[in-house]
Each structure stands twice: as structure tokens, then as C-alpha cells.
Design a protein that fits this description.
single chain, mainly alpha, about 0% strand, about 300 residues
């Protein structure tokens, strides 16, 4: 049982580590001329088509949930964990600093924990777990700020970043009833489907961004853009969403969501490996706070 529990924790850490590296791929795609909405749409199309093919091959192609209420639940999962989350997070960086965005979005476990505790009494945290959660949140702030304790406030950008954190919180909350009734493959495929479906109103509002597949855009696709799109679609979307939803079912929404605190840590590690950015004492201190906080947050009350 301990070995199985370790596997779930390792899977959660691996997913967050991969998500931490997606900043580089997204940045390269933005520099390649794609918009945040186009990047999101393309990566979700890739993930959904692959999952659809896999479900068909395994003869597990279930199209609808058991009831219209459950189908509505899948729609809300797709909007909160897909469309709104990615649009809010990526758009926020156009109006505020990367530091502000990273800090606010990385605190989404606090939002998720608060929502889950409000709606589910069985998920109430002990004092030790609450202390651990707050300590991990403090560690995130130390890592992201990196000794520069100055935030440049931007009401619109910071509000969008908080909206992204709120969306992920609701996604974590809604996964509790979804995981209790449906398997991970079905839920993940529905998240991608409704995430894409919810993009239609956005593209109707911004028709200039619908030219993803026109000739000029396709001609600008080089190997680097294709590689990063495939990485985001196959690994960061399909693989990671499947693993994350599975981990949430096994570890519980609160414990699993706390792993998001590692997101800025893995981002900085990848920046150090790929971009030769410096690892500072503040980073080490913040990482230690996150590790200790995660350990305490995982402790069950006696």
C-alpha cells in the first residue's frame, strides 16, 4: 500500500514538473506568431483526437454521461479547467508582470482548498494540515519573488490571474463528484471536448484569431513550432490531464492540488537547465518551505 501511495505522489510531482516546463514551449509559440487562444485550441484538438482514437481502439468510446446533470458537470469541468483557465492565465501576462501572474496562479491550491473545505465537511483540514498548506504557499511567494519583495500592481492583469486560480479551484472541486461516478479516461476526454466547444463564443468575438489553418499560418510552421505544439498536446495536455485526474481520484483533491505549489519551482529548474538562469538562496529557502509544507499538509489528523 505504501508503494502504491508513493506512485501516486510521484505521478503528481511528474505532472507538475512537466506543466512547469510548458512556459518555455508556450513562450516559443507566442514568439512564433500564435496567440494564446490559438495555442490552447491546437493543443486541445491534438489531445482530444488522440484520446478519441484511443477510446475507440479500446472499445470504450462512451459519448454521454448518465444524466443531463452529469453532462452539465462535464461542461463545467471543460470550461473551468480548460477554456477559462488557459485564456485567463495567458491573457494576464499581457497586462501584468510574469512574476505577478506566476505568484497569483501558483496560489490556486489555497483557493481550491478553501472551496473544498466549504462544500465538503469530510475534507476539513487539521491545524497541522492548515499550517502546512500556508507554509507551502509562503514558499511559493519566496520562490517567485526571489528576494525582490516588490509587486507592480495591475488591476486587470492581476484580476485575470486570480480568475485563473479561481477556475482551477472550481475544477478541483468539481472533480470530486466526477471522479466518484466516472472513469478518468471519460472525464478527461469530456474536459477537452467541452473546453474546445466553449472556445466558439470567443472566436465569434475575436474572428481575427480564427485563421489558424490558413495558408500563411501553415507556411510559418517550422519544426520548432510543430515540436512544441506536439509536446503541449500529447504530453502536457493528454498525458498530464489523464495522470492528474487519476491522481486526484487516488490522493484526494486537496492533497493532489497542493502539488501545484511545485509549479514555479520546476519552472525555475528548467530555466536553469535550458536558459542558464541562476539558482539563488531565496529559491532554495522557498523550495524547503514548500517541501516541509507539503509534508505537513499530507499528514492526516489523528
Amino acid at each position: 500500500m505504501r508503494e502504491k501511495g508513493l506512485i501516486y505522489h510521484l505521478a503528481a510531482f511528474a505532472v507538475v514538473a512537466i506543466w512547469g516546463s510548458t512556459f518555455i514551449s508556450t513562450k516559443l509559440l507566442l514568439l512564433g506568431g500564435l496567440t494564446p487562444a490559438q495555442i490552447f485550441t491546437l493543443r486541445f484538438i491534438i489531445a482530444y483526437v488522440l484520446l478519441l482514437g484511443y477510446s475507440y481502439a479500446r472499445k470504450r468510446l462512451r459519448l454521454f454521461a448518465d444524466s443531463w446533470r452529469d453532462e452539465l458537470l462535464m461542461l463545467l469541468l471543460g470550461i473551468s479547467g480548460g477554456t477559462l483557465y488557459f485564456l485567463a492565465e495567458n491573457t494576464a501576462m499581457n497586462y501584468t508582470t510574469t512574476t505577478n501572474t506566476s505568484l497569483i496562479v501558483s496560489l490556486s491550491p489555497l483557493v481550491a482548498t478553501a472551496l473544498i473545505v466549504i462544500f465538503y465537511r469530510s475534507q476539513r483540514l487539521s491545524r497541522l494540515q492548515t499550517l502546512g498548506t500556508l507554509m507551502a504557499a509562503l514558499g511559493v511567494a519566496v520562490v517567485v519573488l526571489n528576494g525582490h519583495f516588490v509587486l507592480h500592481l495591475s488591476p486587470l492583469g492581476d484580476s485575470l490571474a486570480f480568475l485563473a486560480a479561481l477556475c482551477w479551484g472550481f475544477y478541483s472541486l468539481l472533480m470530486i463528484p466526477a471522479n466518484s461516478r466516472y472513469n478518468t479516461l471519460f472525464i478527461t476526454r469530456k474536459v477537452f471536448f467541452y473546453g474546445l466547444l466553449a472556445m466558439i463564443p470567443y472566436f465569434m468575438w475575436r474572428p481575427e484569431e480564427t485563421g489558424i489553418f490558413n495558408s500563411s499560418t501553415l507556411q510559418s510552421f517550422n519544426l520548432s513550432i510543430l515540436f512544441n505544439l506536439l509536446f503541449l498536446g500529447c504530453i502536457a495536455s493528454m498525458g498530464c490531464f489523464l495522470a492528474w485526474n487519476w491522481v486526484m481520484k487516488k490522493l484526494g483533491a486537496v492533497v493532489a492540488t497542493n502539488y501545484v505549489y511545485f509549479n514555479p519551482v520546476t519552472t525555475i529548474i528548467f530555466a536553469w537547465l535550458i536558459l542558464s538562469e541562476q539558482i539563488t538562496l531565496w529559491f532554495l529557502l522557498g523550495t524547503l518551505l514548500i517541501l516541509v509544507g507539503m509534508y505537513l499538509a499530507d499528514k492526516k489528523s489523528k
